[in-house]
Write a structure and sequence with these properties.
The structure is a single chain. The protein folds into three domains: 176 residues, FAD/NAD(P)-binding domain; 126 residues, 3-Layer(bba) Sandwich (FAD/NAD(P)-binding domain), CATH 3.50.50; 71 residues, FAD/NAD-linked reductase, C-terminal dimerisation domain (Enolase-like, domain 1), CATH 3.30.390.30. The chain has 406 residues and is of the alpha/beta class. It contains ten helices and 26 strands. Helix 1 packs parallel to helix 8. Strands 3-2-1-7-19 form a five-stranded parallel beta sheet. Strands 9-16-10-11-12 form a five-stranded parallel beta sheet, with helices on one face. A five-stranded antiparallel beta sheet has the order 22-23-26-25-24, with helices on both faces. 42% of the residues are buried.
Length: 406
């Protein structure tokens, strides 16, 4: 057990709040300080592209704990404040006003930010990204005034915003550089399911396209010009081409970094007094036996329990399989497992693909299940996890046979 008395958490998202919870749940009675860049208390991000854009929730509804909880648990919360530097020699963090805070243990939960497109017009008014509560509210306001939206990027955020925009009555054109939406995440076969879904709901989905510029007039976006000079008029443009982990603080502090901040199975960085969680954590995964960095809600929810134990000097290992979910129109989906980018995998479908009520499995060359995705089927999640954890070869034909229990 650690005898440290002052813990600092740099970051204000779900991971930061869950880490504060976990420290107190583990009977840590020292000082805990959260340094949050936003003015809003830590909140969950999935509703920002789902319920909030449908008008069913507000960002405040997604707050993890109310302010009273932090007061009751004697946790100092600095809102609207960013950590500008980490001095590992003196074990201090620097704040924008020039003050410093000393730490015994430090957690980095800095999250990620949207990727920008290096094209003309990308900084014009009427060009949106989605990462935080302010972005979500701006999009919702735009839904009430615009009639035509162009979405650049057919990943999770792009498609979820598209579904919400169609629900609000906007005409939506989605532009994707790859042959299918979600191809990097799901491959072409399952990407086609989402392509059909959106086209059935009136979306003009254009794949294999290259964007040359966002057209403007008087500083405001008026549409998108493709590389072949096709012009697509729009009142607003959403750029949804992925995210970058906020690792600059770790890099400047001399921590080991790669695709993110390198952490071991216990989420410790190259400095034993610093852990990293959430989007920035490039973890050595004990089950997958490789490094992975996952930008999904489940990591932010579940990693903090392990990170808190590590900060307290207790043995802990983060071994959960990656998990994410989406809701688009009448399609609900959960995905569990991991298929490496460009990894060859056979897709086996169990159920009715046409009705979009099925479970898809990704199998390696030895017929071991790497991942499973249940679409509008809600009793398969636990069994999918068991099959993946079992690591045994399966019979693809029996796996697809719905007359046999999964």
């Amino acid at each position: 057990m650690t005898t440290a008395s002052r813990f600092v958490i740099a970051g204000g998202g779900l991971a930061a709040a869950k880490l504060a919870q976990a420290l107190r749940a583990n009977d840590f009675d020292g000082t805990v300080t959260l340094v949050c860049a936003e003015e809003l208390l830590p909140y969950e991000r999935p509703p920002l592209s789902k319920e909030c854009l449908l008008g069913k929730k507000t960002p405040e509804d997604a707050i993890v704990e109310p302010s009273q909880w932090y007061r009751d648990h004697h946790i100092e919360v600095l809102l609207g404040t960013t950590v500008t530097g980490v001095d590992r020699a003196t074990k201090t963090i620097a704040l924008p006003d020039g003050t410093t805070i000393t730490y015994d243990k430090l957690a980095l939960a800095m999250g990620s930010r949207p990727r920008r497109l290096p094209i003309p017009g990308s900084d014009a008014a009427g060009v949106y990204t989605l990462r935080n509560a302010e972005d979500s509210l701006a999009l919702l306001e735009m839904f009430g005034t615009a009639t035509r939206l162009v979405v650049i990027g057919a990943g999770w955020i792009g498609l979820e915003v598209t579904a919400a925009a169609r629900n609000a009555g906007l005409e939506v054109t989605v532009l994707e550089a790859l042959p299918m939406p979600l191809q990097t995440a799901l491959g072409p076969e399952m990407g086609a399911v989402f392509a059909d879904l959106h086209r059935e709901h009136g979306v003009d989905l254009r794949c294999d396209t290259k964007v040359a510029a966002i057209t403007t007039a008087e500083g405001r976006a008026t549409g998108v010009r493709l590389a072949d000079d096709t012009l697509i008029p729009a009142d607003a443009v959403l750029v949804a081409v992925g995210a970058r982990p906020n690792i600059e603080l770790a890099v400047d502090a001399g921590l080991a970094t790669g695709d993110g901040v390198l952490v071991d199975e216990s989420l410790a960085t190259s400095d034993p007094d610093i852990v990293a969680v959430g989007d920035i954590a490039d973890q050595q995964h004990p089950i997958l036996e490789r490094r992975i960095r996952v930008e999904h809600w489940a990591n932010a929810l579940n990693q903090p329990e392990v990170a808190a134990a590590t900060m307290l000097g207790k043995p802990a290992v983060y071994d959960r399989l990656p998990y994410f979910f989406t809701d688009q129109y009448d399609l609900g989906m959960e995905y569990t497992g991991y298929v490496a980018p460009k990894q060859a995998a056979r897709v086996v479908v169990r159920g009715d693909l046409g009705k979009r009520e099925f479970v898809a499995f990704w199998l390696d060359s030895a017929n071991r299940v790497l991942a499973g995705m249940n679409v509008n089927v809600w009793d398969a999640g636990d069994r999918i996890k068991e099959i993946i954890h079992g690591g045994e070869a399966v019979d693809p034909d029996r796996l697809a046979d719905t007359s046999l229990p999964l």
